[in-house]
Amino acid sequence: MYVAVKGGERAIANAHAWLAEERRGDPAEPLLSVAQIREQMALAVNRVMAEGSLYDPDLAALAIRQARGDLIEAVFLIRAYRTTLPRLGSSVPVDTGAMAVDRRVSATFKDLPGGQVLGPTFDYTHRLLDFAEAAAMDPAPLGTPGPARVPHVTAILDRDGLIEPVAPDDTPAPDLTREPLELPASRALRLQALARGDEGFLLSLAYSTQRGYGRTHAFVGELRIGRVPVEMEIPELGFAIQIGEIELSECETVNQFKGSRTEPAQFTRGYGLVLGQSERKAIAVSLVDRALRWQELGEDDSGAPAQDAEFVLSHCDNIQATGFLEHIKLPHYVDFQAELELVRRLRQEANEAAS
Amino acid sequence: MTALTGGFADPAIQSAQGFRVLMQAMARPGTIHDLALAVPPAPLGRAAGTVALLLADPTTPLHLAQGHDAIRDWLAFHAGCPLVGPDRAALALGRWDDLLPLDRFAIGLPDYPDRSATLIVALDRLEAQGARLTGPGIRDQVSLSLPDIAPFRANRALFPMGLDFILTCGDRIACLPRSTVVEDA
Amino acid sequence: MDPRRKMPAKAPPPNERRDWLSLMARSAPDRLARVLPDLPDHDLLRAPETGNVMVQGRVSATGAPFNIAEMTVTRCSVVLSCGTVGHGHVQGRSRSHARRAAVIDALMQTGAAATLTPQLRAMEAEAQAATTERAAKAAATRVEFFTLQRGEDT
């Protein structure tokens, strides 16, 4: 039952005014500009873009400021905004082989063609807070530009037939933003859901597979971060043009596989591709992707959470999760009144039975 | 050049205005409404062209019965909808005779009756006389000139699955959703 | 505007047009504004419109396509008083940027190309220089392995 009530308008207006004041903080401190957030909090911006599922660094930076740094609230703002945009079309699938790489490492091959490129990584830092305030960095010494195309490492294993082949496939991609999730979900649909999933949730799930809950024996075959052009066919032109450039993190794991009832012993793959520089998430997605593939590879269901597509896909979206979780703080006066009456009646009945 | 003109001058406002008319027409089956916001190339009527722009976008595959290059280019620019065969179409656009037989179009599934086609039909005549329409959205009954009776009766029998029709003639539209019962006058 | 006006007789080679459209799509609004600060007379065929484009990737880079996420794109189509049509698609949400790109696309199909081309080339060279600089920074973080000791028994 629903009961319509009025009131609280003044309280809400005052709450919003105070929120604006708290958001601004001490007015003696200069206001953060959107450009400052975009440039200096770039990884927070990347996370909001990835989970908000919309590539627009300025919007993500604005959302972070408006949300007072609450990244899930910022993701919520981006998701709400994107619903106001008409869909102009779909891009041609991006070619990550043509990525201008900032970072590219492999844990499986030391001497990979093109080399190991560390990029702007936190790895090998000492994780010591720098109280001296990060000093101006020395300009990097000039090296030679990388090759135009950077081959994927797994192609090396593919050449020897030691890894499962990737068959060319042009099945149109299902779209979670247009059709509700249906199970069983294809790998393409799972990868879309994981790409916009919550980083923390996916990190924990991926970690659980490493600790034995659906173990997949993963190595990072290759992790690369860089920029790729995005192309789209324009009907009125009759050809494809670049409509922009985005930053992506891509991870492919190489997983030991002893063979199953249907597949020979070989290496198998897990794959993750997410917006922005976001390698923790790209690795997590590829581990979870691999764990979810148990059925098609003829592996056993060990009952691990990461193997359960329904569990993973239904709970990885932090906006769905926070919406349902936080709604219980909103008025439930009537529901609770009914519960209260039920408890009172049960106690009364129990008392009467006892006396 | 005509392929690039005749779209909505102010898409946000005109789409909302046009959609309101279309919703009203669908909610009151058989009633005739003016709807001529777009100027499509001949032989497509203004009402049919307007409905196409209101409903079609890159995610709604459209079947263009009786292919026509000018209309094809116009739809590509203003709506961006993929053109497909009848079996894959979410929308179909054409003259009544060219849309037949109707069993080529998707009627939805028992679990998802919405996965069915909406047909935008160009007619030479659309007047409030002829077949007797009753059902949801109709107080007593309304009369509407229909090109035929039997196909609409067969469509009604599929309910809750079936096709929905947007009948157009020049600048005017009337709707015939699957829920409407059609009888001879 | 007369909708029956003819297209210019000589269409530019599609690959050149693709290149300048792609360059403008990735450009910063204020940088493109320096190429053509004041727009000549034109009519709108499609008013500037911001929307999203679903970006696709492929499973394991080469397999079946899947949807990664959306990106913001703004588009616009114009016709010059001479009848030449231009289309602009740019990354982001700037309507004036998309409109300017559409006007430049149209002008590039006319005699104005002679003066615009060197400016677009300069813009392209700047973009290329930025890419090269970034690639150089990445190259400076390439790992050189040194063999300290081989574990072979002698």
From TrEMBL, chain A:
GO terms, biological process: organic phosphonate metabolic process
Name this protein carries in UniProt: Carbon-phosphorus lyase complex subunit PhnI
GO molecular function: lyase activity
Keywords, sorted A to Z: Lyase
TrEMBL record, chain B:
NCBIfam families: PhnH_redo
Keyword Cytoplasm: no
GO molecular function: lyase activity
Lineage: Bacteria, Pseudomonadati, Pseudomonadota, Alphaproteobacteria, Rhodobacterales
Gene Ontology BP terms: organic phosphonate metabolic process
Species of provenance: Paracoccus hibiscisoli
InterPro entries referenced in this protein's UniProt entry, alphabetically: PhnH-like_sp, Phosphonate_metab_PhnH
Keyword Lyase: yes
Keywords in alphabetical order: Lyase
Protein name: Phosphonate C-P lyase system protein PhnH
Pfam families linked: PhnH
